[in-house]
Design a protein that fits this description.
The chain is an alpha/beta fold. About 25% of the residues lie in helices and about 25% in strands. The chain has 8 helices and 15 strands.
Length: about 300
């Protein structure tokens, strides 16, 4: 048996509790890792609360968590990693645990901390995927709504490194940080479109909405075409003719992870980790994220 965090009913963070669960056994092509770090994501909170009931069906008790990093301790036939390898990726069993299974383990660079590797999985893939879909050229202008969040922070850096002009909306306390990462940062809230237009001298070529704050109508107006707007957070996308990406697993870009890991290990990509908690404090981690106290990723350490 091993220690894990589970919940047996939907609810607030206090439904999370420490439990003993069976150690999973790797099947063909899978590896089992001793989890060293697991990232806490908004989707974890949405599933725990019941918000995703019917979209992500669950069978209680549930062990949440997908984004993990750790050391392989067992491998199934045909697995692409071996015992002792340091890897990261998307867990096929709940990651809030001492052990997890991975179908596609990604080698972790030696210089990349386990916490950073776990933190980069979902948010890094989302940023990479949307930029791939938008296919902007150097010199074009990208507006990122909610650029101060974890996805936006990575998207700013990736786009700027490709020569794309980036404008990012964010809270006042995030403006200086985003400017240092290569964006022209503007405060969100009332009047945000006017502030964007004041700095977008050649207009906006595309919009990446990470915020889900009901801004798509304005985003389409700024881009001039709904096909130039993509959201990962606003489920009203279809009503505006905007593409929603991330719900379909076939739409994801697993090839992002090796590239992002290499960039982060080389110091060319900043992935802020706001706080780490022992696994047993998962409920506090959820409460922090739910209250938006964090300025960066929250990571659990089993």
């Amino acid at each position: 048996m091993s220690t894990a965090i589970t919940f047996s009913r939907y609810g607030e963070p206090d439904v999370l509790s420490v439990a003993q669960v069976a150690i999973p056994q790797p099947g063909p092509g899978q590896v089992r890792i001793r989890v060293r770090a697991v990232s806490v994501n908004m989707i974890d909170l949405k599933i725990r609360s019941g918000m995703m009931d019917g979209i992500f069906p669950v069978q209680f008790p549930v062990t949440p968590g997908w984004d993990v990093a750790g050391v392989v301790d067992a491998a199934g036939d045909g697995a692409t990693a071996a015992a002792g390898d340091e890897v990261f990726g998307v867990a096929t069993t709940g990651g809030y645990s001492e052990y997890a299974l991975l179908d596609r383990p990604v080698p972790k660079p030696a210089k990349l901390p386990f916490e950073t590797a776990a933190a980069i999985v979902t948010v890094g893939e989302a940023a990479f995927r949307v930029l791939k879909h938008l296919a902007l050229r150097a010199g074009q202008t990208l507006l990122i709504l909610g650029a101060g969040g974890s996805v936006g922070t990575i998207a700013v850096q990736l786009a700027a490194a490709r020569g794309v002009k980036v404008i990012g909306t964010a809270a006042q306390q995030d403006l200086e940080r985003l400017t240092a990462l290569g964006a022209t940062a503007v405060r969100y809230g009332d009047g945000w479109t006017e502030r964007v237009l004041a700095v977008a001298q050649d207009g906006v070529d595309a919009v990446f909405d990470t915020s889900g704050s009901g801004l798509l109508a304005d985003a389409v107006a700024l881009a001039g075409d709904a096909s130039r707007v993509i959201t990962i957070a606003d489920h009203a996308a279809a009503a505006h003719g905007v593409r929603f990406t991330g719900a379909d697993p076939a739409d994801r870009a697993p090839q992002a992870l090796p590239e992002l890991a290499s960039l982060a290990a080389a110091g060319q990509l900043s992935v802020p980790v706001w706080r780490t908690y022992p696994l047993a404090q998962a409920a506090q981690a959820h409460a922090d994220l739910q209250a938006r106290r964090n300025r960066g990723k929250i990571v659990l350490l089993p």
